[in-house]
Amino acid sequence: MPVKPDILKVTATAKSRLFQVEEIELRFSNGVERTYERLATRGRGAVMIAAIDEQENVLLIKEYAVGLEDYLLTLPKGLIDPGEDAIEAANRELKEEAGFGAERLEVIKQMTSAPNYMGHKITSVLARGLYPCRLEGDEPEEMEVMRWPLSQLDKLFQREDFSEARAIAALYMIRDKLKQE
Amino acid sequence: MPVKPDILKVTATAKSRLFQVEEIELRFSNGVERTYERLATRGRGAVMIAAIDEQENVLLIKEYAVGLEDYLLTLPKGLIDPGEDAIEAANRELKEEAGFGAERLEVIKQMTSAPNYMGHKITSVLARGLYPCRLEGDEPEEMEVMRWPLSQLDKLFQREDFSEARAIAALYMIRDKLKQE
């Protein structure tokens, strides 16, 4: 691997309730200096859950995404709470957002979103052995749950209201994994 | 689709050179009110390019990602400049970051990254008919370019230094598309 740049200075430049912006001064190994901005990373990361039923359907939720000001189809997801690991967080979020618990959960991959601008990580989790179980979460409204056949991912990804790269990546990885089992 | 929440108020709460944070007050159709924060969306979006050579290898770049403070393997990508469309931006970024132009480019899908927190969109582009051509970009150092067989994506995604969800999603979509051609 190349030699990493030296970090010369990190300065907090803006702060809101949720976000904190840092300016970071770097010197690359060739001597070039650059100043970048990034979002500071706080918390324990997030999980995204692909819950697969006995008929090889995946559970999707319809959720309002304030960044797009629209409802989107996506996978259940959420932040890892203090004291939880990724598996525990995944089972809790699945119960809160989709109304199901899972008997078998396994980590698929830790993914990054926009690593040039933030360090945020999300762990995709495969959940199987589903049973009805609803936990009260902090959602402002109940989410509509839809089942979609894993064999028809191409049709799902053609939909304009299914656009989240992390969900597309997670579903393909899981489809490939299940084919190999 | 469900009835969208009413947007009661949008307030700018923090601003840096690159980022602007907004607080947004909503009333959902069930009457529940919530206040969220999101990053304001500026600019024309971004492109991510999967350039495939005659042997069905994809061109990867090794790039320093300041959000993770490490080098990552990923696809060439960048912001769409004023006056460009996604295809033009893709061909320019490919020349700047990988040193290749493409005779045939096509849009695969417009993807979102973290739509609960930002409206940013990135368009994945398939590039074929590659020829050597380097444009000077704003990169602080020359990027190492690596060719990876499309038939071995599973091995690529097992690597810890290949983690970007948007790149995983783009490569799977393109592999599926090429299989069907």
TrEMBL record, chains A, B:
The molecular function GO annotations come to:
ADP-sugar diphosphatase activity
GO biological process assignments? nucleoside phosphate metabolic process; ribose phosphate metabolic process
The GO cellular component terms are: cytosol
Kindly state which keywords UniProt assigns to this record, in alphabetical order: Hydrolase
Q: Name one Pfam family in it.
A: NUDIX
Quote the PANTHER family the UniProt record gives: ADP COMPOUNDS HYDROLASE NUDE, UDP/ADP-SUGAR PYROPHOSPHATASE
Could you tell me what this protein is called? ADP compounds hydrolase NudE
UniProt gene name:
nudE
